[in-house]
Design brief:
254 residues; 6 helices; 9 strands
Length: 254
């Protein structure tokens, strides 16, 4: 379940206005909301790595609903899924051309069709460094096959995009490629219409909610307040929000 952006914006305005500390207009709020959502999303990966050490040391609480490693992984599920890649002839590699921005690639499946002995082979593809890929493919003894394909990641600017995209190079060349991927969340937007008095009126049709789990609502609100304190130049807001964020973090990781 996602976090309603109007709930967060209303809460932020209420806290800021309660002591007459300032006001954050929609454009600034949307920028802060996108920044905070990205920070929280990116924190799942180092947090998961840290929490997994408790699994390795057999100190993780495995009681139902209280395993923090599983709870952290659960927050990533909405962004995880099997995605189809498209072959780009110009760069002789496979790119993700679907919706959203690709963040990470997990298990890769290369499909080889047309073999008379084995009409279709779906092979798990090892992802290695460019150096290891070059060394392996140049040796006759270790050259990749359709049963044991090899891949590495690079990047290139694919028109009409203006920034580099991830390119997946696979040997031997498969017929099709899919991979278990993590897609970055869509930036939240508090959309509005202009009321009869010139005020901003919330519009759900023009808005995009936070895509993070509902359990992150407090962290989102605190994170936005922290940045809002910088904008309105109020150190009290910054210190209070930072202290609350620290308490939440300690509680989640202790």
């Amino acid at each position: 379940m996602a976090v309603n952006i109007n709930t967060v914006y209303t809460t932020v305005l209420y806290i800021l206005n309660k002591e007459q500390r300032g006001y954050i207009p929609p454009a600034e709020f949307n920028s802060l909301a996108a920044q905070v959502q990205e920070e929280i999303f990116l924190s799942y990966f180092p947090d998961g790595n840290q929490l997994n050490r408790q699994n390795q040391q057999n100190t993780q609480n495995d009681t139902e609903f209280f395993n923090m490693f599983k709870n952290n992984a659960y927050k990533l599920y909405p962004f995880e899924g099997d995605k189809v890649f498209t072959y780009n002839v110009a760069n002789t590699g496979w790119i993700y051309a679907g919706a959203g921005t690709l963040y990470n690639i997990g298990e890769i499946i290369s499909t080889y069709s047309g073999n008379t002995i084995n009409p279709q082979a779906d092979s798990i593809t090892d992802l290695v460094s460019k150096k290891e890929y070059t060394t392996t493919t140049q040796s006759k003894l270790t050259t990749p096959t359709s049963q044991y394909p090899l891949a590495y990641l690079t990047n290139a600017t694919i028109a009409p995009a203006t920034s580099p995209e991830i390119v997946l190079k696979i040997d031997p060349l498969p017929t099709s490629v899919s991979a278990n991927c993590v897609i970055k969340p869509t930036s939240p937007v508090w959309g509005f219409t202009i009321g009869t008095l010139g005020q901003y009126v919330y519009s759900s049709a023009a808005s995009t909610d936070f895509e993070l789990d509902v359990s992150e609502q407090t962290n989102i609100t605190i994170g936005i307040l922290k940045y809002a304190g910088v904008i309105i130049n109020d150190p009290t807001v910054i210190q209070t929000a930072a202290a609350e964020a620290q308490k939440v973090e300690v509680n989640e990781k202790s």
